[in-house]
Automatic annotation (TrEMBL):
Site note Discriminates between blocked and unblocked aminoacyl-tRNA, residues: 24
Gene name of the record: pth1
Pfam families assigned to the protein according to its UniProt record, in alphabetical order: Pept_tRNA_hydro
Active site: 34
GO MF assignments: peptidyl-tRNA hydrolase activity
Biological source species: Corynebacterium massiliense DSM 45435
Known function: Hydrolyzes ribosome-free peptidyl-tRNAs (with 1 or more amino acids incorporated), which drop off the ribosome during protein synthesis, or as a result of ribosome stalling. Catalyzes the release of premature peptidyl moieties from peptidyl-tRNA molecules trapped in stalled 50S ribosomal subunits, and thus maintains levels of free tRNAs and 50S ribosomes.
Family: Belongs to the PTH family.
Name under which the protein is recorded: Peptidyl-tRNA hydrolase
Subunit structure: Monomer.
Amino acid sequence: MFRRPRTLDPRELDVDWLIVGLGNPEPEYAGTRHNVGYMAVDDLLAPTGDILQPVKGHRAHAALYDAHILAVRADTYMNTTGEAIGPLAKALGVAPDHVIAIHDELDLPPHKVRLKAGGNENGHNGLKSLTEHLGTRDFVRVRIGIGRPPKGTSVPDWVLSRIDTGAGLDEQIESAAEGARLITRDGLGKAQSVIHART
């Protein structure tokens, strides 16, 4: 079993993949629709009980999911996620197509999870920031459906409001975490066939 240091030093890591949960770091944003990416990273780490630790020299917290996969949350706000993740990926030598962004998706209904590589950001500022700082759209996305806001509710108010909890959300978050795992293990195509059949 490899050791997990208290503070992760990128110079000491041999990482092939970054699994990045998108969200906002302050406690008041926990449990909101915009933070489902954070929830999926928590689910990913739950079986081992690993805790996200500061990454030396970077605005991020992370944990080794296994010896060559780093689960990450940026310490920045959602809209500036790339400012933390771009430099970290570069420092670790991880190519953009081995960065997996787990994020909320307005264009999918609740309880749906879809996986894809590249594509437009569809107005998602966290994805726009990743594109800017990775220098490409060719990173992998695990899209967690939150649906469109009801009439009279703005998109910012919708994404920053509390998400409905319960079995449906739990299964959705588990599927998102499993999707990220499968991508790193079996590739995107096989991961899509499993997850898309499930949700």
